[in-house]
Structures are given as structure tokens and as C-alpha cells.
Design brief:
Blueprint (H helix, E strand, L loop, with lengths): L1 H15 L16 E4 L4 E7 L6 E18 L2 E11 L3 E2 L15 E8 L2 E11 L5 E14 L3 E10 L5 E4 L5 E5 L2
Antiparallel strand pairs: 1-3, 1-11, 2-3, 2-10, 3-4, 3-5, 4-6, 6-7, 7-8, 8-9, 9-10, 9-11
């Protein structure tokens, strides 16, 4: 009887521990849904129009994000503006125009653990300013929990001179709406 029980145990061990075909890993917390900035976030317009790249004005903006899943490790983010304050001049841009902020904006979030990199498709330029075509550019890093996303954005385009917008680290905060 003992050899029979030992035989059953060995069979169970081999067949019970066989690899199962489990689905691919997904983020520990679900990001898909609607998110909003509960408080206005301070954004800064930046430029190297006067030489060194620096901030020249600030404004406060509230936004909404609609996040949908693209794959196991990426999400699509559509950003819309809720409200925006007037600009406050904090430096000089030497008379050059502000970079356009047009909504809705489209981003891709590339997930790694409880963080994601925010990528934007934009025109890429050579060192001489020649357009090279569209490409994805990393413009931010965010961490997330079940109900809060926190991070920063640094978006820069450099055709003839560089201009863009940015936030301070960990000041771009969104909370889940649904």
C-alpha cells in the first residue's frame, strides 16, 4: 500500500506542478478610467529664445485625462483642459511667441511597475533644425496608486529655437473620477 501512495504522490507532484498557460502580466492597479487634477497645476512656459533655456512665464491649469488600455504595459491618455489662468511673466522670452497648447492632447503611458513614462508623438529635428519626421519623445514620469497619479511634465520642441512647457517634480497630481 505504501508504494502505491508514494506513486500517487509522485504523479501528483509532476502533474500538479506543471506550468499553466497564464495571461501576460498587467499593472497591479487599473489605470483605465477618468482622472482629473483636483487643484490647478502650475505650468511654466520655457524657451531658449534669449540664449539659455529658462522659464519665462507661468500659468495654472486644471486638466482631465481619459486613460484606456493599449496593451499589457501601455495606455493611451487623452488630455483635455478644464480651466486655465492668465499668464504671469517671470522672465523674458525676447519677444518670441508661446508654444501652442491645443487640446485634446494625445499621449502614451509606458508602464513599469507602479510608474509610467509619458510619451508624446512630435516632430524630431536635426542639430541644424531640419525636420526628421514624427517620433515618440518622453516628456514625463508619473507614479500611480489605485486613486492617485503623481508626476511631472517637461515638453520641449526644438526647430529653430527650443520652447515648451513644464511642471515642477511631483506637482502634477490627478485623482480618479470613476
Amino acid at each position: 500500500m505504501k508504494p502505491f501512495i508514494l506513486y500517487l504522490f509522485i504523479v501528483f507532484l509532476f502533474f500538479g506542478c506543471a506550468k499553466s498557460s497564464s495571461p501576460a502580466l498587467t499593472p497591479a492597479r487599473k489605470l483605465a478610467g477618468n482622472w482629473t487634477t483636483p487643484n490647478a497645476v502650475t505650468f511654466y512656459y520655457c524657451s531658449d529664445g534669449c540664449g539659455a533655456y529658462s522659464r519665462y512665464s507661468s500659468f495654472n491649469m486644471k486638466v482631465n485625462w481619459v486613460i484606456s488600455e493599449l496593451g499589457d504595459s501601455s495606455v493611451n491618455i487623452t488630455e483635455t483642459m478644464v480651466s486655465s489662468s492668465a499668464q504671469t511673466i517671470i522672465g523674458s522670452n525676447c519677444g518670441l511667441g508661446d508654444p501652442p497648447l491645443t487640446f485634446p492632447m494625445q499621449f502614451v503611458g509606458v508602464i513599469g511597475g507602479s510608474r509610467f513614462a509619458l510619451d508624446e508623438q512630435q516632430m524630431l529635428y536635426s542639430n541644424s533644425g531640419a525636420a526628421l519626421g514624427l517620433g515618440n519623445v518622453r516628456i514625463g514620469i508619473f507614479s500611480f496608486t489605485t486613486d492617485v497619479i503623481t508626476g511631472y511634465v517637461i515638453e520641449t520642441d526644438c526647430p529653430a529655437y527650443c520652447s515648451g512647457y513644464e511642471t515642477d517634480s511631483t506637482t502634477f497630481i490627478l485623482t480618479r473620477v470613476n
